[in-house]
Amino acid sequence: NNNVIVRLAHVGEDVIRLFKKSKDIGVQMHEELVKVTNELYTVMKTYHMYHTESLSAESKLKEAEKQEEKHIGKANDISSSLLRYGLDERPQRRSSVKKMEKMKEKRQAKYSENKLKCTKARNDYLLNLAATNALVVKYYIHDVSDMIDCCDLGYHASLARTLRTYLSAEYSLETSRHEGLDLLEGAVDAMDIRGDKLKFMDTHSQIFCPPACFDYQPHMGDEVCQVSAQQPVQTELLMRHHQLQSRLATLKIENEEVRKTLDATMQTLQDMLTVEDFDVSDAFQHSQSTESVKSASSDSYMSKANISKRRANQQETEGFYFTPDELLIHMFPVLCHKRYCANEVFQLIAICP
Question: Per the database record, which ranges form the F-BAR domain (predicted)?
Answer without folding.
Answer: 1-196
